[in-house]
Each structure stands twice: as structure tokens, then as C-alpha cells.
Design brief:
Elements (H helix, E strand, L loop, with lengths): L5 E6 L6 H14 L6 E8 L1 H12 L7 E5 L19 E8 L1 H11 L3 H16 L7 H22 L2
Parallel strand pairs: 1-2, 2-4
Antiparallel strand pairs: 3-4
Amino acid sequence: MTDRPVFLTDEQDLDVDVDDLCSLARHVLDDRGVPATMEVTLLLVDEPTMTELNSTHMGAEGPTDVLAFPIDDPAEAPGDSDGDDEVPQAILGDVVLCPAVAVAQASELGRQGRDELRLLTVHGLLHLLGMDHAEPGEEREMFALTDRLLAAHAATVGR
């Protein structure tokens, strides 16, 4: 796995394994061939913050589980540096997660909160990479890829 820049900011009160989410993000970005010069930010927020973001950016009421805000296109990212020169970074985007919503959602679905957060992290990253699930075929492709990425990461870290 590359030592790519994945940043995480935790602005909420639930206990979350932030190292696990960062490791998962690196795994997904490596698997998808995202240039190592691209950085991504994971932002963990509380329900009021997510409610505001959901209203402002999606026109929806209430909190949601994950929002993705793409910034730079991976196809236009600078290449990896072979020399000592510093390579300018590109920003893939931000994935905003609401652990409180994820935990409640997981409980309703009979899953663990940490597993739901992992799924949502992959889901948000795939949105940053241009995937969508508006059409049935897109949805099948995105969710099958999510399952494969989660299983591959689990096998890598021994879970």
C-alpha cells in the first residue's frame, strides 16, 4: 500500500477507529489506480453538521450517512515523482461521514456500526471517483465493487 495522503478530521463524539478508515481509504485508492499524488479527506461530523450540509448541498432535510464532494479529476492529477523534486498535490475530494447516522442505520440493518462506516467510506470514495447508483446497472456495479473492496481490505488486514 502506498503512503498516500489521506487526512481525517473527527468533529463528533462517537468512538471511531480512524486508523482503520484511513487504511481502508488508501486500499480503495490504490486498488482503483488513483495517482499517489492525490489526497483525500475523510471528515467525521455530528448530526447537526450533517443536517446542515445535506440541506445546503443536496436540498434534503435531516442528516444523511455520507456525502462526497469531488474536487480534482484523477485523470488530470500530476504523476508520481521519480526524483527529489516535490510533486504538487491534487485533491480528489472530501468524504463526509456521520457516524451517529451510520450506527443507527447499522442497528436497523443488523450490522455493526464499524462495518457500516467502512461501507460508507468506500461508497463515498467511489462517488469521488465518478461512480453513481442512479440506474439499476450502475447500482449493481457500484455495490459489487464495494463488496469486493471491503473483502479485499479485510483479507489484507486480517479481519
